[in-house]
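Quick start: what a row looks like.
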Amino acid sequence: TKTSRIKQIMRSAAKYKRLKLTARDVMKPMIALLSLNIIVLTVWTVIDPLEPEIIMSTQDRFGRPIDTHTVCSSRHYLIFMGILCAINLGSVLFSLIQAYQARNISTELSESAFIFRVLYIFLYGAFLAIPVLIIAREDAKAFYFVWVGL
């Protein structure tokens, strides 16, 4: 949001116009993003709540479970996770675009180059973690470790 504000100020200064930004102007995108996430998560909870599923990893020779773990799942998780990923990755991509557009602004006013680098590293790490998640989906501890690391 700071990059967006700096960009708006520099754009209005180039046109020799006065611009007044309030705290409400800064809060609007944050509240919109938070509201979208809350709405999707609430709809997901109401329509298709997570249900625990007990998985027996190993059994003894009599068919009794030796090692079990519980996984919470829902039938339509791909749809809801896709929507959440689209919303949040969209906001990250929007931030990347904003940082790229503000790259020529003086560093006294803007840290857009640093913001761009951090967002790029974040996206790079997320894309590297996706194949690891797919590979580690059978091992609960490895899957959880990679998932939490994201």
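That is the whole record. The CA atoms of residues 84 and 90 lie 10 Å apart. Residues 23-47 form the longest helix (25 residues).
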